[in-house]
Amino acid sequence: MIYFVGFMGVLAMVLVCVGTVRAEGNYSKLVYPGSDGRLVYAPDEQGNAIPDFSHCGYMGGGVALPDVPVVMAVHPRAEGDDTERLQAAIDAVSERALDADGFRGALLLKRGEYRVGGTLHVRASGVVLRGEGAGEEGTVLIATGKGQRTLIAFAGRGRGPREIDGTRQAMVDEYVAVGARTFEVADASRFEVGDAVIVHRPSTEKWIAAIGMDRIEMAHPGVQQWRPGTYDLRFDRVVTGITGNQMAIDAPMGNAFEREYGGGWIYKYEYPGRIEQVGIEHLRGVSEFDPQLKDRRREGEFVDEDHAWNFVAFSQVQNAWARNVTSVHFGYACVTVGAHAKWMTVQDCQCLDPVSIITGSRRYSFPIHGQLSLVQRCYTRRGRHDYVLHARVPGPNAFVDCVADIAHSDTGPHHRWSVCTLFDNVIVNGNAINVQDRQSSGTGHGWAGAQKVLWNCEAESFVVQKPPTSQNYAIGCIGEKRDGRHARAAGYWESHGQKVRPRSLYFKQLEDRLGIAAVRAVATKAQMDE
User: Fold this and answer.
1) Domain locations in the chain?
2) Can you give the pTM of this predicted structure?
3) CA 29 → CA 47, 171, 506, distances in Å?
């Protein structure tokens, strides 16, 4: 493996690796171009196919991040804490009226250093925080003092979408396959095109037994067997068509819906507390820490844990973004795509040299809890689970053209049945990409993920296992194939050791759906050239 320091090496590594190992005309048997050049998807015997991940990202994918006009600027000062001053400026922008595009304006933090001893909160739609560069000479927010905290929090209100009474309808199909966007309900008369809906998949006792998660090995007293009703998946969708009782939605299903295991239902929802059209860009965050606390076993690692933990976190948001932001020394993450976050893009970001002990619940550089989000062209150094999914994440989500250097643990789904994620040209130097049954890890991580697609990825090693009732895929991946911690059926492997065409599944799917202009809106020249 080749090591690069800094984000400028990310695309260079991608292009070098792709250029040296890929084979022209080497296509997957499951996804390949038809006579019109558009991708054809070969289903399995139940109709499951690799999903279309192009709906991931800001505004549903294929839309360039906006350049929001500056309406207020602040300047650094020589001394003192800047928390209250910056929060007052954020609040002032938040009180402005929304324009026709849904923006209040950008708050510009001029080049220099700002000391922040607390947390900055963005609670209103249409607010953008912008600096003048994510480098050391740009706009630098220093997280001062002690205490594990998030430095910048974008958050709406409420625990999640609220079901609108009287709208719930059962799905009547025996089986709705992975990748499907249509299904039949008992009565579609209460729905209209454009409705925001939840497609709800229950976690029944029978399904949990089928995947063995009621029999997790009791390796330690903290292990908890999965309980019915606590592993439901809620797919946040928009109705795009209704024909009789047949309904169409805007993005594919990330898990099969089986009548045998409880089927599913659909209902309209409202979520007035969710904010949108918010973003952060061109900023650097640095967490202070005690440099006297060093890891005696690992040179260059520090283990202080009483300092800032997250640089930026988004929750209860949609159509949001983080671009060109860098975190240094934060203990947990650079950008967290939190619960009930939808249609997010995180791009051209770096998570550098986190400070913590190297163990669980730390150094998750770019974690996703939400759905329909895109993380692309990001870079990490000295993380653990760098490009990672947490529990019950409904998907789809996509990591594209991302690199991890000096990784202390594996990339991939971490625990408890996250579904439908694309790892597209993800490179992990010094560690693995794994999709497996983690059994008693933590309090019973069990099957970490299903419907995971590893496309043209590289790592020191891979574990890709097949869960009962589902599948995982490794296509065009470079690295040692391993069996995993527990003996399980292997997932779908194809073209191991040789890259496939197209180079990027995400960008080809985006081109097929919206045209080449959509790819140009979100890809760099280097990505387009490939």
Assistant:
1) 1-56+417-530, 64-151+273-372, 162-270
2) 0.95
3) 15, 31, 17
